[in-house]
């Protein structure tokens, strides 16, 4: 789950979505049924970010970052 700096619009921070929470986060992001794997980029609302932050026990700064549900490619 990437966070983009509101000032620069650059990807600045990322948090993994645990497999156990993926379905709930997918629902909070309002991913359409046509994108079962959530391969698109979906902005997260303030309430969604707060709920996710609580569930993953991570501080997700909503003042500094815009948060999205989108796939992230990791380097091996």
Provide a short characterization of the protein structure.
By secondary structure, this protein is an alpha+beta fold. It is built from 2 helices and 4 strands. A 4-stranded antiparallel β-sheet has the order 2-1-4-3, with no helix packed on it.
Describe the structure.
This protein has 76 residues and is an alpha+beta fold. The chain is 24% helix and 20% strand.
Overall geometry = globular
Largest β sheet strand count, sense and barrel closure: 4 strands, antiparallel
SS content category: alpha+beta
Instruction: Give Rg in angstroms.
Output: 12 Å
Helix content: 10-25%
Contiguous runs where pLDDT drops below 50 for at least 5 residues: none
Total helix count?
Answer: 2
- How is the largest sheet built, in terms of strand order? 2-1-4-3
Mean pLDDT: 91
How large is the share of residues in beta strands? Answer: 15-25%
**What's the order of the H and E elements?**
EEHEHE
DSSP, total strands = 4
- Separation, N- and C-terminal Cα atoms: 18 Å
């Amino acid at each position: 789950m990437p966070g983009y700096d509101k000032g620069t619009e650059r990807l600045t921070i990322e948090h993994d979505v645990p497999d156990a929470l993926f379905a709930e986060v997918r629902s909070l992001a309002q991913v359409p049924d046509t994108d079962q794997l959530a391969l698109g980029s979906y902005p997260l609302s303030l309430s969604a970010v707060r709920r996710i932050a609580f569930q993953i026990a991570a501080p997700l700064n909503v003042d500094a970052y815009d948060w999205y549900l989108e796939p992230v490619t990791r380097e091996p």
